Amino acid sequence: EKAQIGVTGLAVMGRNLARNLARHGHVVAVHNRTPHRTRELVEEYGHEGTFLPAQSAEEFVASLERPRRIVIMVQAGPATDAVIDELTPLLNPGDLIVDGGNAHFADTRRREEALRKRWLHFVGAGISGGEEGALHGPAIMPGGAPEAYESLGPLLEGIAAQVDGEPCCTHVGPDGAGHFVKMVHNGIEYADMQLIAEAYDLLRRADGLAPAEIGAVFRGWNDGRLGSYLIEITAEVLGHVDAATGEPFVDVVQDRAGQKGTGRWTVQSALDLGVPVTGIAEAVFARSLSGDAELRAAAAGLPGPLGTGRRASGSLVADVEQALYASKIVAYAQGFHQMQAASAEYGWKIDPGAMARIWRGGCIIRARFLDRIRAAYAGAPELPSLLVDDYFLEAVRGAQESWRRVVATAAELGIPVPGFASALAYYDGLRAPRLPAALIQAQRDFFGAHTYRRVDRDGSFHVAWGGDRRETLC
Ligand code: NBP
């Protein structure tokens, strides 16, 4: 008996993905660099399906039906290259390698090109949902050649999360498109989490609500348009009491946020593409600021209010809900803009509505809201920004007064809301009839003769700033 698919790399993610495949009736070849993980998988979960354990890469490859389908689930980076290098000499033209790790899309593009020259398919697939998702149904974002998806798609769609009878998996686009979209997904996740944290901070400090009360507010929001996995788990966290101290759990956790790097990658890519993703960038920087303990200690005595100016239990709740929703719309609009810009840059032809569809289940940012995004792109695939879609335009129109009040209140009380404030600034920047960029162009012409364009005539102009200040057409 041969296996339909193989998984190499059997730490939490690989093991659970292999189990998910086996539970769906596939014969799964399993392999890991150190064999004890392979042994443990078969001992503990062998009854869940048919696993073909392999001790060596040779045995692993030999146990697969052809064309072979191999999923790599190892640490992203050099480990992935090491596994690819070990496998490729053992494979035949037409065989297919999937990298399900969190690879940088540039690495995926490089690997896809190298393997294509050897007549092998390489599919960089973003897999979201953590270990639980891998086991019970993740969101899967596969890139690579369309022919590769023909062979792989039905398998992946079968084990992905399902929403309204549709799988949370689709072919994203060629080469690195899948990993790119997964990266932006993670960036949006950073922005979403930051906005939720700011909402909590405001309700606690400006409104005097206790964590458990805020948890209850979030539970209420979860039944409305903000309904999402992140809001749901936040409500649970805020309701949790530390067993050792009896304090709210959130108060015994050190206030320094960690990051593994996908948020940073998203911002780096956005800088290269020239797309403002201020919501994601502020979220990444807010985590960096929180993590700089030394700097924070040095700055602790700086003058200013400390956010305890007002105690009007509950008066801000409705405003904060509006601000959160509007800021979330901006963060998603920016993330989708980035995907569309990358799609144009690399020729990926990403369907943004399909991305919203496959993020509705399995992944960390799954939310009711994504159905709205899907609908927006279904009605207008070339939509320049989610903000100009009718539904979102009306939502932001309705949220606006509250949103401005929340940002102003936060500024007055000294409560940092970089997510809310930068989202509002982006919104106001986009809709401004005229921006001070005109002054910047004039400054650039002054010190660097960078020239400028006039509102009333074609051509590039320069003023002789150091001399007679006459304007010349360049
Ligand atoms: P890890 O990222 O912790 O990697 C451990 C695995 O990599 C083990 O199987 C290990 O083998 C293998 N490995 C390493 Br390390 N170096 C190797 C090498 N040179 N050659 C062969 N194998 C090597 O595992 P994970 O947490 O299960 O994550 C797997 C992938 O999924 C990663 O890319 C990660 O970023 C991604 N991930 C995604 C999510 C998500 O939510 N989507 C969550 C967590 C992880 P060994 O047993 O012999 O040491």
UniProtKB/TrEMBL annotation:
Swiss-Prot/TrEMBL catalytic activity: 6-phospho-D-gluconate + NADP(+) = D-ribulose 5-phosphate + CO2 + NADPH
Keyword Ubl conjugation: no
Keywords: Gluconate utilization, NADP, Oxidoreductase, Pentose shunt
Entry binding sites for NADP(+): G9, L10, A11, V12, M13, G14, N32, R33, T34, V74, Q75, A76, N102
GO molecular function: NADP binding; phosphogluconate dehydrogenase (decarboxylating) activity
Catalytic residues, chain numbering: K182 (proton acceptor), E189 (proton donor)
Highest taxon above the source species: Bacteria
One biological process term in Gene Ontology: D-gluconate metabolic process
Domain 6-phosphogluconate dehydrogenase C-terminal residue range list: 178-466
Pathway noted in the entry: Carbohydrate degradation; pentose phosphate pathway; D-ribulose 5-phosphate from D-glucose 6-phosphate (oxidative stage): step 3/3
Positions that bind substrate: N102, S128, G129, G130, H185, N186, Y190, K260, R287, R444, H450
InterPro entries per UniProt: 6-PGluconate_DH-like_C_sf, 6PGD_dom2, 6PGDH_C, 6PGDH_Gnd/GntZ, 6PGDH_NADP-bd, 6PGdom_BS, NAD(P)-bd_dom_sf, Pgluconate_DH
EC number(s) reported in the record: 1.1.1.44
UniProt enzyme class: oxidoreductase
Function: Catalyzes the oxidative decarboxylation of 6-phosphogluconate to ribulose 5-phosphate and CO(2), with concomitant reduction of NADP to NADPH.
UniProt cross-references to NCBIfam families, sorted A to Z: gnd, PRK09287.1
Family affiliation: Belongs to the 6-phosphogluconate dehydrogenase family.
Protein name: 6-phosphogluconate dehydrogenase, decarboxylating
